[in-house]
Write a structure and sequence with these properties.
Layout: H1 12-31, E1 36-37, H2 45-49, H3 80-90, E2 97-99, H4 104-118, E3 133-138, H5 142-150, E4 154-161, E5 164-165, H6 167-176, E6 180-185, H7 199-207, E7 215-219, H8 237-243, E8 250-255, E9 267-270, H9 273-284, H10 292-302, H11 305-333, E10 341-342, E11 351-354, H12 360-369, E12 372-373, E13 391-394, H13 401-424
Parallel strand pairs: 1-12, 3-4, 3-6, 6-7, 7-8
Antiparallel strand pairs: 2-9, 4-5, 8-9, 10-11, 11-13
Helix pairs in contact: 1-13, 4-5, 11-13, 12-13
The chain binds pyridoxal-5'-phosphate.
């Protein structure tokens, strides 16, 4: 088969010949008995090492700048010094930014449960009083979807373009369906495509007519996770929402999970004063204050906004070659056959790969049988349902570079076999 001819352009005989070659390559791959894993959006061990000083910090210190004893209860809003560092990156005023426990996912989950039970500021009744829905830009983050699925919130997929969710679709859905009370947004380096929302799109999202209890779950998990020198202009979503007359619409989330230790980090939530007062009231019955010693550790490690940026550059140095390997291997192995389209993110943790329609699930299955674990096909869609069966999320951060290359190469072998099978079926 000529490498210049896309699989979709081959006649049946040539396709059969290609399929036989891919099958032989796959059999050789399977015989290697690999055991590799491309599923995990986790930092690698050498990234975790960048924050090992945390294991020794804060030493004998236990007071904040104001002299408060952080060993004790209290300080429900979190350590002011740490909130100041992340206020800068998130463009949320420190007074409206809380530093909490270990996982932002917990905060998102709790906000949703609180909204179901009590309703949110401006809402007439709890979300739980009726059937409610969330808009879900796709491909997206499966754990966002899982929260909604767990609590019976309907998920409505919306196409995610390179500059953010497709606004005409969002507008039409909001006009037609008054059950919509929320929307998942990963505005910078979206999981998994790496899309960065433009200012125009953000302006639309905060301005479009919607119910008073409609909330944007603004998960800025990757706002400081750059992979190149090309940096998106920071967008002040709270400021734009206030300007548009909808100050309570965005709820901003973030964490240090992929800055320091995912297992021992700090989560943040920001919003309008009304939203923050509501959150603090809800949290007051949950906890007498977060782990402020861990927050102090983080202040000592990161120091200030510049320290945070410098720390993230060390992550970039480790991650950049891994993302380059993804582009290079897909370019060499898939592109000659027209075997897929993939994103080249400027930051974040993932690459989104679209293989030929109908081949993703089979490709993942073939890869698994050859010892290469890949995120299940469909995981990036609500209910695990990718209507085209095309999208595969690639997580290149965790494996060592040599293992990553072997796994990606093997995955391409599985994809080409799956695609040729699909076209012959
Ligand atoms: N939000 C997004 C978009 C993510 O990709 C992830 C992890 O992959 C998380 C949140 C999890 O954040 P945390 O560790 O703070 O719960």
């Amino acid at each position: 088969v000529s490498p210049a001819v896309p699989l979709t352009d081959l006649d049946t005989d040539s396709l059969r010949a290609a399929n036989a070659r891919f099958q032989a390559a796959y059999d050789a791959l399977a015989a290697q008995g690999l055991k590799l894993d491309l599923t995990r959006g986790k930092p690698s061990a050498d990234q975790l090492d960048l924050s090992n000083e945390l294991l020794r910090l804060p030493g004998d210190e236990y007071r904040d700048a104001a002299g408060t004893d952080l060993r004790n209860y209290g300080g429900a809003l979190g350590l002011p010094e740490l909130r100041a560092i992340f206020a800068d990156a998130l463009l949320v005023p420190p007074a409206q930014l809380l530093a909490l426990g270990n996982a932002s996912l917990t905060v998102m989950h709790d906000v949703i449960v609180q909204a179901i039970l009590h309703g949110v500021p401006g809402g007439e009744r709890p979300w739980g009083a009726r059937t409610v829905s969330f808009l879900a830009p796709v491909p997206g983050y499966d754990r966002h979807f899982s929260i909604c699925e767990r609590y019976g919130i309907r998920l409505i997929p919306v196409p995610l373009n390179d500059d953010g969710p497709d606004i005409p679709t969002v507008r039409a859905l909001l006009e037609a369906d008054d059950s919509i009370v929320g929307m998942w947004c990963v505005p910078v380096y979206s999981n998994p495509s790496g899309a960065v929302y433009s200012k125009e799109v953000v302006r639309e999202l905060v301005s479009l007519p919607a119910a008073p209890d409609f909330r944007l779950f603004w998960d800025n998990a990757y706002v400081v996770h750059h992979l190149t020198d090309e940096r998106p202009t920071p967008i002040d979503v709270l400021g734009l929402a206030a300007e548009a007359g909808n100050p309570d619409r965005p709820l901003v989330f973030a964490s240090t999970s992929k800055v320091t230790f995912p297992g021992a980090g700090v989560a943040f939530v920001g919003g309008s004063q009304a939203n923050i007062d509501w959150l603090v009231r809800n949290m007051a019955v949950q906890s007498i204050g977060p782990d402020k010693i861990n927050q102090l550790r983080h202040v000592r490690l990161l120091q200030d906004a510049d320290g945070l940026a410098a720390h993230m550059e060390k992550h970039r140095a480790i991650l950049e070659p891994k993302f380059q390997a993804v582009s290079e291997i897909f370019e060499n192995r898939l592109a000659p056959h027209g075997g897929g389209r993939w994103t080249a993110p400027l930051g974040g943790y993932f690459v989104s790969l679209d293989v030929l329609d109908g081949a993703a699930e089979r490709a993942v299955q073939l890869a698994a049988a050859a010892g290469i674990a890949v995120t299940p096909a469909g995981a990036t869609f609500p209910y695990g349902d990718d209507p085209r069966d095309a999208n595969i999320r690639i997580a290149p951060t965790f494996p060592r570079l040599d293992e990553l290359r072997t796994a990606l190469d093997g995955l391409c072998t599985a994809i080409l076999l799956a695609e040729s099978e699909t076209l012959l079926a």
